[in-house]
Amino acid sequence: MASRDRWTERRSRRTGRAALGAARYREHVYTGTALFDVLLPDDSNSLKAKRAYVRPVVAALRKLDVAVAEVGDQELHRRSQLGVAAVSGDSGHLTEVLDACERLVAGRPELELLSVRRRRYGADD
Q: What Pfam families is this protein classified in (predicted)?
């Protein structure tokens, strides 16, 4: 029980400092999204074969600490749209993360990257 009391005490101290910091500093949160439109190889003639190409890409993107999902063209065998979302407290870091995601998808030899659409949302949006 004593450890729980210490945890509650530390939490209230942290909350108090955060409230004080918010009064002095403006907080920034940046959200970025990217939509990758990719063309799969000719031998992707079933949804099972499509999944064999898409799943490793999704797993590799998740290692970059982003949220990723197949968001479009799910019924087509040779096309896929992958959506990526990231949140950061620094605009530059957010750009670096989205750049890394784009390099990863473009660097896959089995995929052809057709287009990339990016959006950034700042504190003022």
A: DUF503
pLDDT tens digit string along 4-15? 544 444 444 555
Buried b vs exposed e over 53-65: b needs ≥16 C-beta within 10 Å? bbeebeeebeeee
Token pair for 74? 């799910």
> What pLDDT sits at residue 35?
96
Residue 74 lies inside a defined structural domain of this protein? yes
Question: 68 pLDDT band (50/70/90 cuts)?
Answer: very high
State the CATH number of the domain containing residue 85: 3.30.70.1120
| Stated pTM of the model | 0.73
Can you tell me which residue has the tokens 């670096």?
Answer: 96
**What strands lie across the sheet with 67-72, from one edge to the other?**
67-72, 79-88, 30-39, 112-121
Total number of domains in the chain: 1
Residue 24 lies in a domain: no
In a domain, 117, yes or no: yes
Q: Is residue 95 part of a domain?
A: yes
